[in-house]
Specification:
With about 100 residues, the chain is of the alpha+beta class. About 25% of the residues lie in helices and about 25% in strands. It has three helices and six strands, in the order βαββαβββα.
Length: about 100
C-alpha cells in the first residue's frame, strides 16, 4: 500500500507529510527521495498506508489539493521501471551504428 505524492514543496519534511496523511489513516512510512549529487529533495515522495481503504481515502482527498503553495499530485504508486545499466540505448552499439 504505497502512494505517490508529486509536486511537493522542496521545504517539506517527512513529519509534515506524515501529519497530512495521518488524517486519513495509519501511516507506516514516508520516503522523500533526494538528489544524489546535491542532496536536495526531488519534489516527490511516497507514503505507505496501513490499508487499501486508507490509501484510497487519502488519494481521493489529496489529489489536486493545494498544500504548501502547490497543487499535489497523489495516486497509487507504480512499481519502479527497470533501467539498464547504461540508461537506455547509450550503451547499445547496434543503435549507434544504424544512424
Amino acid at each position: 500500500m504505497s502512494v505517490y505524492v508529486g509536486n511537493l514543496s522542496y521545504e517539506v519534511t517527512e513529519e509534515r507529510l506524515n501529519a497530512v496523511f495521518a488524517e486519513y489513516g495509519s501511516v507506516k512510512r514516508v520516503q522523500l527521495p533526494t538528489d544524489r549529487e546535491t542532496g536536495r529533495l526531488r519534489g516527490f515522495g511516497f507514503v505507505e498506508m496501513g490499508t487499501d481503504a486508507e490509501e484510497t481515502a487519502a488519494i481521493d482527498a489529496l489529489d489536486g489539493a493545494e498544500w504548501m503553495g502547490r497543487d499535489l499530485k497523489v495516486n497509487k504508486a507504480r512499481p519502479r521501471e527497470e533501467r539498464g545499466s547504461f540508461g537506455g540505448n547509450r550503451g547499445n552499439s547496434s543503435f549507434r551504428n544504424r544512424y
